[in-house]
Amino acid sequence: MHQTQVAPRPPPALWIWATETSQALRGHRLPWLAIALAAGIGGYFALPAEPAGVVLISWIWLGVTFAWAGWRLRASVGFIFLILAVCVLGVGVAQLRTRIVAGPVLEFRYYGAVEGRVVTLDRSASGAVRVTLDGVRLDRVAPDRTPRRVRLSLQQQEGLGWIVPGARIMTTAHLLSPSGPTEPGGFDFQRHAWYLSLGAVGYTRVPVVRAAPDAGGWFTGITKARGIVAKALRDRMPGQVGEVAAAITTGDRSGLSDEITASLRASNLAHLLAISGLHMGLLVGFVFWTVRGGLALIPSIALIRPTRVWAAVASLPFATAYLVLSGGSVATQRAYVMAVVMLGAIVVGRRALSMRSVAIAAILVLLWRPESLTGPGFQMSFAATGALVLVFGTLARTERPDWLRGWRGGILSLLLSSLVAGMATAPIAALHFNRVGHYGVLANMLAVPMMGLAVMPLLFVGLMLMPLGLEALPLALAGWGIEWIMMVAQEVGGLPGAVSAVPAPHWHVLPVLGLGMAILGTARSGAVRSVGLVVLAVAAVLWVRSPRPDILISDDGRLLGIQTEQGRWLSRETGVSFVAQSWLENDGDMVAQAEAAGRERPAAIPISLHHAATKTALPQAVADCARDPGWLIVSVAPEVVPEGCRLIGPATLSQTGAIAVYLEDGILKVWTAREVQGRRPWSRGP
């Protein structure tokens, strides 16, 4: 009796394709894992409601299951399951971080004594000195209900030189909880404040006094060292030159004038003030090449010793010192992680500038601070770094003519890096800040080489020689370089049409744009790069087609904005200026609030709007609504609401936040800030 052998069924075509794709990515998988981690974190922040605590355990169990499947199927489609595991890990890490930073948020308006230790010192958008306090004490507020941190704007502007990080101060202040978005889908300051453990913000008009002697310890010691360095630079480099030098070495931007800040922003050079990847990279690069060049002069060492590794090891302490000296902001911490990864790659014999190194840095930063994914600093830093690695990696594989080598090649490399980084970060900057600097690439090509070749190295040399009293020459030369940068900023920022406004797109444009850029930078084949280009094209179409709200109502009912053919009409010439300016900027409208309020209010809208921003205007608004029923928008609730009128007052707005109305074919589509935020720990109210 013969047995018939049945041929095994071939695997499905999809399985074959998935296996071939998974195996083809060997050696290039880390960037895709970084994308998966970012996707998981982004998915967490897009959730409409905060998952229950037990769900965190479920994320861990699901991630372990996917990881186990990836290990078992590592010879075929295992990498796909590993991507899923990392994506789930991103959700769990973000939720865990949210619980770790959780702290009390002020639930009422507070006026009284405030005491705390100064953590940071900066300036608000209006130029007022602003302090962030921890170890806070509030009068008649229980410790378990007192916010971990409080931020105060000081109306007193004179005699504040003694206020430095580490000082414990006391004053009488007005406080309230962090405000929500100025419009649905806008910048969520409540979420931003949550991850800073910032439970209240406010201001004080009375003098600030010292509550206790400055505490000792490493924090105070570092703070004093930073203050000494900043003062020394200001004394030796007077005027705004010294203020810029203090800003890029210690992070202290409190003395910068509004004119210099505005010109740097208009010319797209404001990033030179933020201690980030550029500054850390320039410092580490200078130390690295100085040490390696010095060792190359000693043949007995250069020929037999790993001078490249020695230079990398020598650069690490200077990177750490710069992190401490600059105040250790989030941007500087991110730049430090990237620098450590690059130097570590050199030590272990790998390429420092590679997508693998960028991916490792991104993974470390996201695991440490997952909320940084939503900020422009993270997005612009890694967009610029990824673009530079992609372009210079391609150039490294090509044969360059002799005239591109040596010092000429170095200068051209700096110019090219400015061009590439500017083009990579331009769409992200436009999306977040609603501004496009048309000559930003030109300004960066003129200023960044000066920063890299002169300012940063000379400031470093000057600080090293300061204990010997030999800092005069390098600091003077660095001052000339800073003057050149300020001149470029003023000239380029003052050109006609240097800056134009860009309307804010819908919130879904940013993740699509980020995904397209990530795929384009990670792809190893032309087909995958084509997918990245298609995704970027989709983001561009979505951006162009993003409508702006026809009607906007502020979260306190004090401001109303209606879109007209000339731009948005505002109900007030003054007051609520932050909200008004935010609306106009998001519209891509560069006019002042007073000019917007002077526009003619449109009459042909499907609903009647009656607005009372103050108590004195309330009777007239109620009477108007009684004659022509519609929406009664008030900042103070009336005693009687006329029949047929829909009241939008303090009780409603406390639950909804800001309101946006879209008019489509005569149909009203209403969105609220709370609806877009979802039921999350940082948002309050249903």
Automatic annotation (TrEMBL):
**In the UniProt record, does the keyword Cell membrane occur?**
yes
Annotated localization? Cell membrane
Q: Which InterPro entries match?
A: ComEC_N, Competence_DNA_uptake, DUF4131
Q: Which organism is it from?
A: Jannaschia faecimaris
Keyword annotations from UniProtKB, A to Z: Cell membrane, Membrane, Transmembrane, Transmembrane helix
Q: What is this protein called?
A: Competence protein ComEC
Transmembrane segment boundaries = 30-47, 54-71, 77-96, 269-289, 309-325, 337-368, 380-398, 410-433, 439-465, 472-489, 501-520, 527-544
Family annotation (NCBIfam families): ComEC_N-term
Classification via PANTHER family: BETA-LACTAMASE DOMAIN PROTEIN (PTHR30619:SF7), DNA INTERNALIZATION/COMPETENCE PROTEIN COMEC/REC2 (PTHR30619)
Task: Note whether Membrane occurs among the keywords.
Answer: yes
Q: Where is the DUF4131 domain?
A: 58-191
Q: What is its main location?
A: membrane
